[in-house]
Amino acid sequence: RTSSTGSTSTTMSGCMGTGKPLISILMAVYEPRMDWLRQQLVSLNEQTYPNLRLYIRDDCSPTVPYEQIQSCVQECITRFSYTITRNEKNLGSNDTFELLTQEADGELFAYCDQDDVWLPEKLTVLQEAMERERAVLVCSDMYIIDGDGKQVADSITKVRRHHVFRSGTDLARGLLTSNFVTGCTMLIQSDAAKRAIPFCPYMVHDHYIALCCAAEGMVYSSPKKTICYRIHGGNQTGLVVGVADKASYGKERIEPMLARMQWLKDNFVCGAELEASIRDALLWAQARDRNWHHRGGSGTVWKYRKFSPLSSMGEIFLKYAPDGLFAKVMQWARRNRI
């Protein structure tokens, strides 16, 4: 796939460690709040891991000057090399991370958001876990902070009740419909990340990369917290972001899943067992769409409820719910009560 990229790039040379694989940190930036970006960059600069390189792409921020972002990076990153580039036009986070994945060197990739804070030992912990577990991908738990940097939870599972970490070599089927890998805690073998290109347009980059890695081998979830994950303002968590009524539920929750499964069926190369699961998941997604629009399908939704028992059961009944009751259920979901 060809994407538009910027021509402006700045590189600073720094000292590289020896005896450890090179980890490239891939960071997408868009309209950053500069104090948060500075905190994140400082936390990268303070990593104890000795062999790092940073790749940054600004996704054509309309109001934050590129020169201001460049200056912040130059001031904060002093211990290793970096490259910073600006997209010629806004591409969105998925395509920006895809470009970063295409262009980066190094044996391992660590994906990075612009507003979190990494603990100093993050990359050391993850690289040692990857080596120990012989994993293709490792991820971790995290502390939760608010917009002011105050800790509000000591685990992502405290704010996302359905988030269950998993480790093993047979996790791909579960990752078709739900994700436990948070991209900003992810360390991945770079060749596996490059094989995932092109990213599925109907999955967030970390979810799709996790699926690709689970189809290849071991995915390991470390119980250690390696970052402070910032939840603030409008970045709501949960499965009903953007849902206001039944029509928007269909648009935000049902149609994207159907598009995802159709894309995976047509494009995802995998073994026969996972291929069969994708076909079943497509039948489930098609039935969910029919059910939600009162065109039958509830029996098939129930038959394949293994892909999401709560959604399957809820949708069979919620399509009949009065608008007030539906809104109440969505409110409970937003508050992490169901």
How is this structure best described in words?
The protein has 338 residues and is an alpha/beta fold. 41% of the residues lie in helices and 17% in strands. It has helices at residues 34-45, 66-76, 93-103, 122-133, 172-175, 190-195, 205-216, 246-267, 272-292, 298-303, 309-318, 323-334, and strands at residues 9-12, 23-29, 52-58, 81-86, 108-112, 117-118, 137-145, 151-153, 187-189, 219-230. Strands 1, 2, 3, 4, 5, 6, 7, 8, 9 and 10 form a ten-stranded mixed sheet that branches. Helix 1 links the parallel strand 2 (23-29) and strand 3. The two termini are 40 Å apart.
Keywords:
globular, 10 strands, 338 residues, alpha/beta, ten-stranded mixed sheet, single chain, 41% helix
Give a quick precis of the structure.
By secondary structure, the chain is an alpha/beta fold. It contains 12 helices and 10 strands. Strands 1, 2, 3, 4, 5, 6, 7, 8, 9 and 10 form a 10-stranded mixed sheet that branches.
